Structure to design on (198 residues):
């Protein structure tokens, strides 16, 4: 008899702490996509709820908890807004609280960026890719960039643009596909065996 496989753990780091931020609205779509798979344990690290210090001012209890979550994750989503032509200082603060060496080392990482401008979060994602690779993450090609994000969601977070919504949701599918093919083939095989036994 097969023992129950553990859930795959996916952790998203939300790079905005602004009230009603668009990064959180995009991550809500990713969350709804993951929620269709009972084998996935998805959680979002929201810096607005955490006490995180800049380097040199100690390691908070929240930082230790976040490090543990990231270390135990099978895959990571780094979601950033574009601020002044780069990723947010908010997501860098979370990354700086992940330890040195970083808890991101060796983790499959998908990148998601949102921006109000028409060229999207290209610069933010390029810079974030560099940092995520530098700390040892396995960063996927093809980051997802959302342009004119203020037209994609309304104030309440309702999706106004289904095509862009599908693009954002694809982050979840691509991350799962990679993890199942390359990181957890045994887990995938067991799921297939179970499915064929039904
Ligand atoms: C400090 C700051 C800097 C910004 N810089 C840019 C920028 O360089 N390019 C851009 O397209 N939008 C820029 N914006 C607009 C944001 O991309 C937009 O407000 C987006 O919704 C921010 O994501 P958030 O709502 O998740 O914080 C900036 C916004 C802020 C608050």
């Amino acid at each position: 008899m097969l023992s129950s496989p553990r859930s795959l753990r996916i952790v998203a780091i939300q790079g905005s702490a602004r009230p009603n931020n668009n990064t959180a609205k995009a991550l809500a779509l990713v969350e709804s996509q993951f929620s269709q798979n009972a084998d996935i344990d998805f959680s979002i690290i929201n810096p607005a709820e955490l006490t995180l210090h800049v380097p040199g001012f100690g390691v908070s209890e929240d930082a230790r908890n976040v490090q543990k979550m990231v270390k135990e994750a099978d895959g990571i989503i780094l979601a950033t807004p574009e601020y002044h032509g780069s990723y947010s200082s908010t997501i860098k603060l979370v990354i700086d609280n992940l330890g040195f060496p970083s808890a991101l080392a060796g983790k499959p990482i998908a990148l998601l960026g949102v921006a109000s401008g028409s060229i999207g979060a290209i610069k933010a994602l390029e810079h974030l890719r560099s940092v995520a690779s530098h700390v040892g993450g396995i960063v996927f090609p093809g980051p997802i960039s959302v342009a004119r994000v203020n037209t994609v969601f309304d104030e309440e977070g309702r999706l106004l643009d289904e095509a862009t919504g599908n693009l954002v949701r694809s982050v979840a599918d691509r991350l799962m596909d990679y993890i199942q093919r390359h990181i957890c083939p045994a887990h995938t095989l067991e799921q297939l065996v179970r499915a064929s036994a039904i």
About this structure: DSSP finds six helices and six strands in the chain.
